[in-house]
Amino acid sequence: MPDVVRVDLVDEGAFWRVRFGGSRGNILDGATLQALSGVFTQARSSRALKAICLEGAGDDFSFGASVQEHLPAAVPAMLTALRTCVLDLLDSSVVVVAAVRGQCLGGGLELASVCHRTVVTPTATLGQPEIALGVFAPLGSIVLPARAGRARGEDLCLTGRSITAAEALSIGLVDEIADDPTAAALAWARAHFSNRSASSLRLAVRAVRADLTARIRTELPALEKLYVEELMATGDAVEGLQAFLEKRPPKWRNA
Questions:
Q1: CATH, residue 93
Q2: CA gyration radius, the chain
Q3: Is residue 163 a part of any domain in this protein?
Q4: Which listed site, 3, 33, 179, 204, has its alpha carbon 20 to 30 Å from 24?
């Protein structure tokens, strides 16, 4: 398995600790997303596995995809890789708990929001900042309203603001605040799943996630098409991304 993802077995393989990244911000580039997809695909055939603890290496969970990968030439491949990774997570039919430290932004928040449970440190910050760059988050447009309710999910997608761990807990975006989110995630998994049948649990996961999985599989490609064919045809989308890369304020033309 590539170095960008590390898997450690816990309790004789009943639980996996999966850490991704290693560079600053644990950017979700193509190699990282492909490696995570491989882990989730492997999880399908691990009969004893009951839950995965997913975390970013180092001080942050993830800044999401790089700004360069949001540009017209690169964004179709990035969107496809993220969709594939998320569907592989869902198709693994294993409980996944995100352990979040530091910043959890963009695609990082989208990935965490697909997990069944999210545990964060008291100092964590979470946000979907794409709109500040003149673009939007296709996956976030589905999973944030599903996770935190329509009004709160729309607020995060449309304002692009980052929120604290305390606010995220209050709106239902995260489930627990802990100084050591990995230990808390594994403790929760042990308490609830150690005495459960792994095969029965997988079927229960498939059942409770059937609607979300179907929505992502059918609705997300349409939102990706909106991004690639319409958003990327506007001058403002490219201007916002270029302005960020050039470290200057964007000059919006509203078109």
A1: 3.90.226.10
A2: 18
A3: yes
A4: 179
